[in-house]
Model the fold of this input.
Amino acid sequence: MKTAVHNIPLLDPINDGRHTLSSNPYSRESVPYVFVLREEQIVGCPYTWVDREGVAGGILFLFGPGVGKDPIVEHFADIKLPPGSNFDDWRVGNIHFSQDMKMESAKIEVRGKRVDLDCTFEAVHPAYGYGGHVRGCPPWLADNRLEQTGKMQGVLTLDGRRIPFDTVGYRDHSWGTRDWQSAQHWKWLHAQAGPELAVHFMEIQALGRVELRGYVLREGLMAEVAAVEVDFVTDDQYLHHSIDAIVRDTAGRTTRVAGNFFGHYLLVPGPHTTLNEGGMTCTIDGRAGDGYVEFMWQTAYIEHIREALRLQKASR
Done:
């Protein structure tokens, strides 16, 4: 990875592996990967997690017009792992992750009822850690969290149909406390247009503050996000249909991401929280690309907004 880094502390590669979690009941560690198949109109996410007692779970969800009206979900949960299990040889149900422990590459395998996945992830820049920010990582979100853009290559087998792919991919890895109810809302975005142009940011509304973390990779230089201006369009269920983001970084650059979403999935980590996942085609400064955006809402709030919109329409 020939990438210069502008005032971003680099993470020790040991963070590709497991971490010691505190006794906080919200402690957990998780690793999701995301890939976008533009031509097939499919988005996929193999995702695994483990708690402080070594009880793990995993999920593979696929959504978008390419899989039909309803998402496909393969789920494996409440599996007690052997002592010493690490992400270099991580087996949870029918999920197998093999990370190289250098934060550079990984192999992902999933065997499901309708879906098989065999692919690799190759990072295109050093991992970005939220803990390196001047305000650190929000302590209710994680002790630390890394984000990374890459290339994903392999084969997705869907209901017996083989779909070879060579596409963009993203991953994060977080460890520590995850209190889903401390945040009121967030926008988590990854977008990529070729191996040397990528944007990630997470804008969070929590505890009376707006927290912002992320990076821009352009022309071989990776710099931290300093400010974002985000506009978006939603439907009456508050699923995001388009997004327009102006991103300013600490190297003094301004980058624009404009995306249109072709598929959605509702990921519900608990009864209080709803994660609206969306796969998009996009442009970054006019260059064609692909991306993924997650809008987090507290469930009671989003239900209230939906009902308020319904009442407004009914009263016209």
The first helix runs from residue 299 to 314. Residues 26-314 form a domain with the AttH-like fold fold (CATH 2.40.370.10). The mean pLDDT is 96.
